[in-house]
Amino acid sequence: MNKLVQVAGIIDAAEADMCIAQGADWLGFALRLPSGKDDIAEQDAAVIIKGLDAPHAGVLISYLTDAEEVSEFCRELGVVAVQLHGDVATEELRRLKEIRPELFVLKSLVVKEDNVDELLKLVDETHPYVDMYITDTFDPKTGAKGATGLTHDWSVSAELVRRSPKPLMMAGGLNPENVGDAIRTVRPAAVDAHTGLEGPDGRKDSAKVAKFVTEARRAFDDIA
Ligand SMILES: O=C(O)c1ccccc1N[C@@H]1O[C@H](COP(=O)(O)O)[C@@H](O)[C@H]1O
């Protein structure tokens, strides 16, 4: 699972096809968001996900916190991986691993101004039940914990990489211009972006996705 490049927030089949064509490995589908305003219908996401050929894969991004509900939804969608963005109890992570050991579980670590100790503790507690962590950036203005388009203090991400026994996907305000520096500084196993790959129309921009993938792969080779 090293050198993985994910594009998050896929909104339709054309966008999924374009991201795969430009070299993305995994595609993230944000569903059952608390706002109730998903960018894609669950049935449409399932069709795209089931049409992906390995090593490409669809990832459910969600704030769900109940292991049974997560497992059932992943089954319906046909995803091999889930990115849990909510405040999931350690017991629910343990339960998810118990009922779906084959499901690849990414747990978000939302970086705030002063919560590094809290995140390190979360890693210590949850790593037996997590396959990969993913950083993200908190937006204090809106309270949003995902797809904020904001970067955070990369020294925090680097500390999480050093502490975690499990690999870490770096995310939070990444774009084609900063992803290379991010990888060289933080040394993550994977990267992911949403907002920084969009054009003015809110759709993923083909040239931005291509450059993001190229820059990420070059930097991963540099740190290998
Ligand atoms: O992608 C989304 O729509 C999404 C929705 C809700 C929570 C998380 C979401 N995506 C994750 O957000 C970060 C990166 O976002 P950005 O590049 O800063 O815009 C990453 O973890 C995505 O997987």
Walk me through what this model shows.
This protein is of the alpha/beta class. It has one domain (4-223): Alpha-Beta Barrel (TIM Barrel), CATH 3.20.20.70. The protein has eight helices and eight strands, in the order E-H-E-H-E-H-E-H-E-H-E-H-E-H-E-H. The chain has helices at 13-21, 42-50, 67-77, 90-99, 116-126, 154-163, 179-186, 206-223; strands at 4-8, 26-30, 57-62, 81-84, 104-111, 132-137, 168-170, 190-193. Strands 1-2-3-4-5-6-7-8 form an eight-stranded parallel barrel, surrounded by seven helices. Strand 7 (168-170), helix 7 (179-186) and strand 8 form a beta-alpha-beta unit. Helix 5 runs parallel beside helix 6 and helix 7 (179-186) packs parallel to helix 8 (206-223). Ligand LGQLAAA5 is lined by residues 8-9, 28, 30, 33, 61, 83, 85, 134, 136, 146-149, 171-174, 192-196.
N to C succession of SSEs:
EHEHEHEHEHEHEHEH
Proportion of residues in helical segments: 25-40%
CATH class label? Alpha Beta
Distance from N terminus to C terminus (CA atoms, Å) equals 14 Å
- CATH homologous superfamily annotation: Aldolase class I
The stretches of 5 or more residues where confidence is low (pLDDT under 50) are none
Which key features would you list for this structure?
N-(5'-phosphoribosyl)anthranilate isomerase; aromatic amino acid biosynthesis; tryptophan biosynthesis; EC 5.3.1.24; PRAI_dom; alpha/beta; eight-stranded parallel β-barrel; globular
Provide the fold topology.
Blueprint: E1 4-8, H1 13-21, E2 26-30, H2 42-50, E3 57-62, H3 67-77, E4 81-84, H4 90-99, E5 104-111, H5 116-126, E6 132-137, H6 154-163, E7 168-170, H7 179-186, E8 190-193, H8 206-223
Parallel strand pairs: 1-2, 1-8, 2-3, 3-4, 4-5, 5-6, 6-7, 7-8
Helix pairs in contact: 3-4, 5-6, 7-8
Bound molecules: ligand LGQLAAA5.
Enzyme class: isomerase
Pathway: Amino-acid biosynthesis; L-tryptophan biosynthesis; L-tryptophan from chorismate: step 3/5
Pfam families: PRAI (PF00697)
